[in-house]
Amino acid sequence: xxxxxxxxxxxxxxxxxxxxxxxxxxxxxxxxxxxxxxxxxxxxxxxxxxxxxxxxxxxxxxxxxxxxxxxxxxxxxxxxxxxxxxxxxxxxxxxxxxxxxxxxxxxxxxxxxxxxxxxxxxxxxxxxxxxxxxxxxxxxxxxxxxxxxxxxxxxxxxxxxxxxxxxxxxxxxxxxxxxxxxxxxxxxxxxxxxxxxxxxxxxxxxxxxxxxxxxxxxxxxxxxxxxxxxxxxxxxxxxxxxxxxxxxxxxxxxxxxxxxxxxxxxxxxxxxxxxxxxxxxxxxxxxxxxxxxxxxxxxxxxxxxxxx
Length: 308
Description:
With about 300 residues, the protein is α/β, with parallel strands linked by helices. Helices cover about 50% and strands about 10% of the residues. The chain is built from twelve helices and eight strands. Strand 5, helix 10 (about 235-250) and strand 6 (about 255) form a beta-alpha-beta unit. Helix 4 (about 55-65) packs across helix 5.
């Protein structure tokens, strides 16, 4: 993927989702009117692409109002689908702005183990570095030595400071020390990794509450953001994770990763439709610059097959 633009990587990443949907739309070209069977087929294709039943029904209803749309060619049919998708994505496409005062802006990053959380933290840090912000990482997932080690490696690669303690250490205490150091050294953004265990929701809730209490003593506005990392390849399971983490951690925004690894990239749209939370960035690929804010119209056009 080296040398490709972000748009080219995005197009390649969402190709499987677009093709799955496109196969079902292309066969309808030239029909004078879409009948109910055609609409059912489109709706089923949208659900299969993980746009979710509500979004699929919404697009079906829109096409039912314009049954003659297929007579003018596939492009117009795709255009209707793209417009409905874009209408849902536009309000939630919000980059993560660094505007906290006093600094640092504290971002808690949460997500189940295996969602790409630690790598996403590194990619977010890189994104902020590109905007000339001073960044510091906090290895707050003290239950996994591997997570601490991985974050240390990323911090070294990026040339940024990290606050870490021993495995099994007190996360809140590490966060407390990190905020004090970040404040003293003029850091703009403090990104905190947190434990990803959902097996015991109460335990995780208590731990996050403790971190929030500690932060509040140093800066009443902190944490400024609670960002949930979601793995797109889990499809509809990602939506249930949002439900749980909103209850447990008070999620303020989302990052969707691994969109290039699935034919169900429509889950991005389903998350937007169902929850309406800001989606700060999406991940396509494994390299450090493969996480970016997104353009709602571009994503909609790719999924619908209007951008190829």
